[in-house]
Recover the amino acids of this structure.
C-alpha cells in the first residue's frame, strides 16, 4: 500500500497539485501513519541536537518538521467537507484521533519543550526580526497551551480530552449534513408554489426530475431554503420548512446532537481548567485581539445598545406592514423573511430576485476576480490541466505582473449531496518560503450557489454575490500572503482579525461604480437601471438593526456556552433561550434549537470566537472609509491594504497591521454610521 500510495509519492502534476483522480479513501490512514513516522524522526533530531538551542536549530526546525504530513491532511479534511462519501467520513474519523495524539506527543514532549523554552527565555538577546519573534512567541505559547507545563497525570488527562474532542467535532458536522440532506418538501400543485419566483420553481422542478419524480422538490440547502422562506405565500409550508430546518440534529434519532453539545462543552471546560483557566472562553481569547470574556461581552453589549432601537424600529415597521396586508396575530420566525422582503420591495422597489437576471454566475465569476485586477493588478487564467477534486471545480492560475504566477485558485460553486452547507475558503497548500523562494499557495473557495436550470443559467441573488465577495476576500488573504513561515502565512491570524479581509470586500457589493462595470441582464445585456442601483444603495441599512441583533444573539450564545464554570446537564432549549433573549425580537419557536446545528461553534473552529464577525465589521467599516475618502478603485489605497494587511498574514500583531493601514486605532463610529443605527426616529 505504501509503495503505491499516491499521497506518499512525488506529484508530477502541474504546480504539484494533489492527483485527486488517483487518491482513494483507503490511502489516507497508511499515508498519515507513514508521514507521522517521518515527522517523529524529524522531531527526534531536534531533541537530540547536541548544540545549544537556538532559533534556527529549534524553532525553525520545529516549524519545518512534518512537511509531508502537512501536505496530506488538508486533502482529507477539505474533501470531507466539500465532496465527501461514507468512506471518506470513515477515513476522517480514523485519522483524526491519530493526528491529535501525535500533536499531543509533540506539545507534551518535555525535552522538546525545554529547548523551546530555552530559546524563548533568551529571546530579547537573539536579534530576531519581527516575524521571527512572532513565530517564537507562537511556538512557545503553543506548547504551554498544549499542556507542556502539566504534571504527568495532567498530561494524560489532556491527551484523552483532545483526542475525544477531535472525533466529536467530526460527528457533529456529519450529523448536521445528514439531517440537511435527509429532508425534502415535495410539492405537486401550482397553488402550493404561489409567490415563488420562476428561478426557485425551475430549480425545484429540475431537482424533482433528477430524482425521477413529478412536481417540485425543495430542500434545506440554502439556495432552495432561503428563497422559499422569502417568497412562498403558503404560510403553512413556510412553517413546515422552518421547523424542519430548526429541528436538524434535534429529533431524538441517531443524528441528534444534544449530547454532543454537552460533551464537547464539558470537555473544553475540563481542558481549560486543567490549563489554569476558569472557563474555555478565557483560554481561547488569550490569543485574540479581544483577550478576555469581559472585553467580548462588553463589546457585544455596546453593539446591542446601539442596534436595539433600530431593531425595534425594524420589527414595528414589518409588523405594521404585515398587519395592513392581512397578517393576523404575531409575527413568527417563519414569517419574518417573507414580510421583510415584501416591505423591502414596497419601500425600495427592489428585492434579491429583481437583481438575479443581472447577476448570472458567468458574469460574477469574472467580475469578482476582476475587482482584484482593478485593486491589486492580479489576473486569473483558467488552466484545465490542473487536477481538481470534482468535475464542477474550475482551477485558475493567479498572475501578478512581473512576479508571474503567485497562487492557484479553485472555485466550487454549487450544492451537492457530499458538500456541507454554507461557503468557505480553504487551502490545499499554504504559502511559505524555502531558501527565500516563495512556495505558491493553492486556495479553494467552496460555495453553495443556485444551480442553472434547463431554461436559464445560474443567476445569483445579491446576497449570493455578496457571499462570493466575502469568500474571495479570504482567498486574497491566502493568495497574496508573502510570509516566511507557513504557520504565520495567509489566514493564520488571530481569529477575530481573520474576517477583516473578507468583510471589507462586501462593501463593493453596494457600489454603483463597480456594479456598472459588469452587471448586465443575462438575456438583453442591459445594465442594471440607475434607479434600481440607487434604490439598492438606499436599502443598504434596511433591516440592519434586526440583522445585527440576530448576529449578536449568536455571539451571546457562543459566549454563554464557553463561559460555563461547571459542565452543563440541563435543558439546552431553556439555556439558549435565556441567553439569547435580550437580543431576540421574535417569539421563540416551539422545539427549535440553534445549538445542535451551530457548526461554527462545535465543528468549525469559532468556539468563543463568533463575536469576531461583528468585531471585524468594526475593522472593515473603518478600513473601507479610506476607500470612500480616496476612491473605491484607488490603487494606492489598495496597495497599502495589500502591503500592510493581506501580505503580512500573522507575521505581525493585528493591532499593528491595522494601525499601519489606517494610521490610528480602529473606531466603532464608521460601523454605527454605515448601519444606520442613529436613525431611530
Amino acid at each position: 500500500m505504501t509503495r503505491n500510495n499516491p499521497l506518499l509519492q512525488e506529484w508530477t502534476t502541474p504546480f504539484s497539485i494533489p492527483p485527486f483522480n488517483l487518491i482513494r479513501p483507503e490511502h489516507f490512514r497508511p499515508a498519515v501513519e507513514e508521514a507521522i513516522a517521518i515527522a517523529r524522526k524529524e522531531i527526534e533530531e531536534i531533541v537530540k541536537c547536541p548544540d545549544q538551542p537556538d532559533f534556527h536549530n529549534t524553532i525553525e526546525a520545529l516549524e519545518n518538521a512534518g512537511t509531508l504530513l502537512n501536505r496530506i491532511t488538508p486533502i482529507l479534511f477539505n474533501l470531507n467537507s466539500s465532496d465527501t462519501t461514507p468512506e471518506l467520513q470513515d477515513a476522517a474519523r480514523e485519522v483524526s484521533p491519530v493526528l491529535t495524539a501525535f500533536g499531543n506527543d509533540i506539545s507534551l514532549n518535555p525535552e522538546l519543550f525545554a529547548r523551546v523554552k530555552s530559546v524563548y527565555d533568551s529571546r530579547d538577546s537573539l536579534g530576531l526580526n519581527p516575524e521571527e519573534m512572532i513565530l517564537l512567541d507562537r511556538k512557545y505559547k503553543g506548547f504551554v497551551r498544549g499542556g507542556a507545563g502539566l504534571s504527568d497525570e495532567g498530561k494524560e488527562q489532556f491527551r484523552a480530552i483532545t483526542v475525544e474532542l477531535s472525533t466529536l467535532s467530526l460527528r457533529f458536522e456529519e450529523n448536521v449534513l445528514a439531517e440537511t440532506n435527509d429532508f425534502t418538501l415535495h410539492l405537486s400543485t401550482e397553488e402550493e408554489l404561489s409567490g415563488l419566483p420562476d428561478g426557485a420553481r425551475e430549480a425545484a422542478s429540475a431537482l424533482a426530475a433528477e430524482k425521477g419524480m413529478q412536481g417540485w422538490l425543495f430542500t434545506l440547502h440554502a439556495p432552495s431554503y432561503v428563497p422559499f422562506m422569502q417568497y412562498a405565500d403558503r404560510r403553512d409550508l413556510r412553517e413546515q420548512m422552518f421547523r424542519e430546518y430548526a429541528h436538524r440534529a434535534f429529533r431524538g434519532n441517531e443524528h441528534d446532537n444534544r449530547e454532543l453539545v454537552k460533551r464537547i462543552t464539558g470537555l473544553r471546560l475540563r481542558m481549560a481548567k486543567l490549563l489554569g483557566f476558569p472557563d474555555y472562553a478565557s483560554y481561547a481569547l488569550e490569543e485574540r485581539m479581544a483577550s478576555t470574556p469581559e472585553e467580548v461581552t462588553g463589546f457585544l453589549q455596546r453593539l446591542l445598545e446601539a442596534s436595539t432601537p433600530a431593531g425595534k424600529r425594524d420589527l414595528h415597521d414589518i409588523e405594521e406592514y404585515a398587519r395592513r396586508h392581512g397578517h393576523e396575530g404575531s409575527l413568527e420566525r417563519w414569517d419574518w423573511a417573507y414580510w421583510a422582503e415584501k416591505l423591502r420591495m414596497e419601500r425600495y422597489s427592489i428585492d434579491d430576485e429583481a437583481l438575479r437576471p443581472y447577476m448570472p454566475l458567468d458574469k460574477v465569476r469574472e467580475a469578482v476576480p476582476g475587482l482584484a485586477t482593478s485593486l491589486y493588478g492580479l489576473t486569473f487564467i483558467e488552466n484545465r490541466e490542473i487536477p481538481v477534486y470534482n468535475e464542477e471545480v474550475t482551477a485558475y492560475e493567479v498572475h501578478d505582473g512581473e512576479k508571474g504566477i503567485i497562487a492557484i485558485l479553485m472555485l466550487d460553486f454549487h450544492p451537492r449531496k457530499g458538500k456541507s452547507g454554507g461557503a468557505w475558503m480553504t487551502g490545499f497548500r499554504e504559502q511559505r518560503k524555502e531558501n527565500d523562494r516563495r512556495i505558491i499557495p493553492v486556495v479553494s473557495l467552496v460555495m453553495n450557489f443556485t444551480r442553472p436550470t434547463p431554461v436559464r443559467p445560474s443567476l445569483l441573488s445579491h446576497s449570493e454575490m455578496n457571499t462570493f465577495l466575502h469568500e474571495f476576500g479570504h482567498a486574497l488573504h491566502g493568495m497574496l500572503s508573502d510570509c516566511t513561515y507557513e504557520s504565520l502565512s495567509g489566514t493564520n491570524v488571530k481569529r477575530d482579525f481573520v474576517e477583516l479581509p473578507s468583510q471589507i470586500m462586501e462593501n463593493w457589493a453596494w457600489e454603483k461604480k463597480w456594479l456598472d462595470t459588469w452587471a448586465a441582464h443575462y438575456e438583453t445585456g442591459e445594465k442594471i437601471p440607475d434607479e434600481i442601483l440607487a434604490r439598492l444603495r438606499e436599502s443598504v441599512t434596511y433591516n440592519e438593526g434586526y440583522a445585527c441583533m440576530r448576529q449578536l444573539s449568536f455571539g451571546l450564545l457562543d459566549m454563554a456556552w464557553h463561559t460555563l464554570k461547571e459542565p452543563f446537564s440541563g435543558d439546552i432549549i431553556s439555556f439558549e433561550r435565556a441567553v439569547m433573549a435580550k437580543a431576540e425580537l421574535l417569539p421563540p419557536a416551539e422545539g427549535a434549537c440553534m445549538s445542535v446545528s451551530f457548526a461554527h461553534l462545535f465543528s468549525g473552529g469559532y468556539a468563543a470566537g463568533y463575536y469576531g464577525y461583528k468585531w471585524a465589521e468594526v475593522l472593515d467599516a473603518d478600513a473601507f472609509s479610506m476607500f470612500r475618502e480616496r476612491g473605491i478603485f484607488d490603487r494606492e489605497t489598495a496597495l497599502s491594504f495589500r502591503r500592510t494587511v493581506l501580505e503580512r498574514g500573522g507575521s505581525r500583531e493585528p493591532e499593528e497591521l491595522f494601525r499601519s493601514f489606517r494610521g490610528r486605532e480602529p473606531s466603532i463610529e464608521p460601523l454605527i454610521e454605515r448601519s444606520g443605527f442613529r436613525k431611530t426616529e
